[in-house]
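A favour, since you know our structure tokens better than I do. Go ahead and set the record down below.
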Amino acid sequence: MRTYRLFVQREQYKVSCAHMTVFPDGSKERLHGHNYQLGCELEVSDISFQKIVPFAMVKQALAELCTAWKEKVFLAKHNPYFRLLQQDATSVIFTLCDQHYELPLADVLLLDTDNITVETLADLAATHLSNRLGSWLKQPHVLRLEAMVSETPGQGASCTITF
């Protein structure tokens, strides 16, 4: 059997954001930023005319994720060291590892994860792409989707969903 891997990982799918990774002992990194590069790879078993891969749909899903993540401070709302103290129309007040923060609401993105690492971002990206590509991924010739997040050239993580 032959399989084919098709990928979209272009310069335009990058996002600048900030985060603080938390470690199991309750320590954390200082607030810092990255210029993440996002990408997607699809593995299929059929490349016939009727089974063409919709690159435009993949690119749109990546662009949407970049727009949502652009210039945000990522916070892991399920982290055991994170406490959301107050959120209103203008600000978010929280503690992380017993340090107090107040940030403008427009600059914060609360993510549905327990930490902000390149691995968890790859997982969130895979979930977004899978949801966005939806029914197209349910075709029998689509074998897997892989989301890649690179924090520097040659360093990053990926998450694979096998169908």
Summary: The radius of gyration is 18 Å. Residues 118-133 form the longest helix (16 residues).
